[in-house]
Write a structure and sequence with these properties.
By secondary structure, the protein is mainly α. It has three helices and no strands. Helix 1 crosses helix 3. The protein is elongated and about 65 Å long. The protein starts with a helix and ends with a helix.
């Protein structure tokens, strides 16, 4: 096998490993999102404010400390995802109460 073929083979193998890691990351984000939905349900049913600024700052700090500036971007994306889910969840609840009043 010539050098270019070896390099291509190595690149292909590394890309397969990245694809596998991406699948794990996607699963983790889905799991995290499910936990956010559970928290939202608990907060809503107990009249607790949905947004906790100090908790969000902790998340930003943890990601920034581990990954630098990119970590802040990741934390922002995850928190945005959680808020989007919270918003959708609230809409679904309002819709179900409208469809089935009382």
């Amino acid at each position: 096998m010539d050098e270019k073929a070896v390099v291509k083979s190595l690149i292909d193998q590394l890309r397969r490993e990245i694809d596998s890691l991406d699948e794990q990351i996607i699963d983790l984000v889905r799991n995290r999102t499910e936990k956010a939905v559970q928290i939202t349900r608990l907060k809503r049913s107990n009249n607790i404010p949905l947004v906790n600024g100090s908790r969000e700052m902790d998340v930003f700090s943890r990601y920034a400390n581990a990954l630098g500036r990119f970590g802040r971007t990741m934390a922002s994306a995850l928190l945005l995802k959680a808020r989007h889910v919270e918003s959708d969840f609230g809409k679904e609840e309002r819709d179900s109460h409208t469809e089935n009043p009382g």
